[in-house]
Amino acid sequence: GGRVILLAPDVENKGIIKTDTGQVILAAGHKAYFHLTNSSDSKTLLRGLLVEVESGGSAVNLGQLAAEQGDVTLIGKLVQQKGIVSASSSANLNGTIHLLAREIAPKGNSFLPSGYRAPDRTGRVEIGEGSRSLVLPALDDGKIKAAIGAGKLSQAQVDAYRRGETSVADFYAY
């Protein structure tokens, strides 16, 4: 898996960004602080990077962000989710979505016990009409290929599931 990070004072996605067992981050701010999580800690839900922004801007998703068995994070003073955000979870790897409207003040002095800077101002999250934010069960690629080969499923059905346009029940029929 890999990481895709879009970082700018204001950031907007209108395309398709996908990663397998990785992380997609849209971070809007004049500075960003990254902290690698301890993936061996069973209390940590997020595998990958924690991110905070200073002097946050707008993080806007108008397209599709997807992390198969990974994490999608949008962070800024204003977070607008107007597209599709999806993550999948398996028995071994969890999928997460974080929509975080917060920022660190430029001269803020809030710190976490670990010594890292802490956000001290909240913002606003806006969810657009018709948008979708989904954490789905991961599909077994071997079973999916066999079902497609047997004519029980089509690739279009699989793609529709991954876009959140169909139910997981459709895949238990095979």
Describe this structure in words.
By secondary structure, the protein is mainly beta. The chain has helices at 141-149, 155-162, 169-172, and strands at residues 3-8, 11-13, 16-20, 23-36, 49-56, 58-61, 64-68, 71-76, 78-81, 84-89, 96-103, 121-122, 124-127, 132-137. The strands form 3 sheets. Strands 1, 4, 5, 8, 11 and 12 form a 6-stranded mixed β-sheet that branches. A 4-stranded parallel β-sheet has the order 2-6-9-13, with no helix packed on it.
Question: Short summary of the structure?
Answer:
By secondary structure, the protein is mainly β. 12% of the residues lie in helices and 47% in strands. The protein has helices at residues 141-149, 155-162, 169-172; strands spanning 3-8, 11-13, 16-20, 23-36, 49-56, 58-61, 64-68, 71-76, 78-81, 84-89, 96-103, 121-122, 124-127, 132-137.
**Low-pLDDT residue spans:** none
Taking the sheet with the most strands, its summary is: 6 strands, mixed
Cα separation of the termini: 29 Å
The ordered H/E elements are: EEEEEEEEEEEEEEHHH
Number of strands: 14
**Estimated helix fraction:** 10-25%
Strand content: over 45%
Shape: elongated
Work out the radius of gyration: 18 Å
Task: Find the structural class using helix and strand composition.
Answer: mainly beta
Counted by DSSP, the helix tally is 3
